[in-house]
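Protocol step 4 of 6: structure prediction from sequence.
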Amino acid sequence: MRYRAIGPLCLIVLWMGLGTGCGPGNPLNRLPISGEVKLDGVPLDQGTIQFTPEGKEGVGTGDLITNGTYALPAEKGLPVGKYRVRITAPEGGEAGINPNEPPGPTTGQPAKDRIPPEYNTQSEIVVEVTAGGPNEFSYDIQTK
C-alpha cells in the first residue's frame, strides 16, 4: 500500500522540476546584437561600441569592434527598447583599448579619438531593439 503513493509523488516532483527548469537562462530577455562599423569606407580596425538605455530604467551593454564587426550573443545583448549608440576608436588603433576590460570610459589621459563627436560624446544616434530582430546596426562613419 505504501508503494502506491510513491509513484504519484515522484511524478509531481518531476513535473515541478521540469516546470521551474534549472534556473533563469535569460531573465531580462536579452537579444543578440551585431553589426559592422566602417571609418571612411574601410572596416574599423579596432574600437568600442556602447548602447545606453534611453529611459531611466534598463540595461546597457557594449562590445569591442574588431576588423569592422561586433557581435553580442543573447546573454550579453539587449532587451527590447531604445538605446543611444556611442562609438569610439582611439588614435593608433589599439591605443587605450584593453580587451580584458569591459568597453566604456577609462581613467587617465584620454587618447585622441578617430571617431567624430557626433558618433560618441555628442551622439544623437538612437536604435530600437525589437523582438522580431534581426537587431543588426551598422555604421559608415565619414571623417573627410
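Step 5 (inspection) to follow. Residues 2-20 form the longest helix (19 residues).
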